[in-house]
Amino acid sequence: MQKKKKAKVEEKSAKKDKEEKKAKVEETKIAKPKVASEKEEKTIDKKDIEKKILDLAKSGLTTEKIGLELKKQGIFAKKETGKRIGEILKSSGIISNADITNLKKKVEKLKKHLSAHPHDYSSKRALFIKEANLNKLEKLFEEKKR
């Protein structure tokens, strides 16, 4: 008799534990960014989309970040305009290479760090390497540009 009672009590506590775990999981789920419906997408002109892309590029965002920002607003540049974001930027005269911009940011961070910590030799070496990579990429980008 006592074994049956213990088994029932254990089953009840196991059920409670499972329910508590489910509740915790549901609380910790991350909400996905809301994407506008298709009806809202169609109201935007190609010129408006290109203008938004140019504004975001002038604010310093790379093509990848521009795409993510537009996606949050429910705008899909290639689907709406027929051109990729990079092509739109090239046609308007704004040419950006994400690799170069990211390397420049890293070099700036390292320079700032080294001004505060001048005896950090491993960071000095990393700065030299990043600057060399940046120079290589810039040369390569100039050659492709021609």
Count of all domains: 2
Q: Could you list the spans in which at least 5 consecutive residues all have pLDDT below 50?
A: none
Treating each run of at least 4 consecutive H or I residues as one helix, how many helices? 8
Order of helices and strands: HHHHHHHH
Q: How much strand content do the residues show?
A: under 5%
Q: Classify the secondary structure makeup into a structural class.
A: mainly alpha
Question: What can you tell me about this protein's structure?
Answer:
It is a single chain. By secondary structure, the protein is mostly helical. It folds into two domains: 38-92, no CATH class; 98-145. It contains eight helices and no strands. The mean pLDDT is 83. The chain has helices spanning 2-28, 38-41, 46-58, 63-72, 77-81, 85-92, 98-116, 121-145. It is flat.
Q: Can you describe this structure in just a few lines?
A:
By secondary structure, the protein is mostly helical. It is 76% helix and 0% strand.
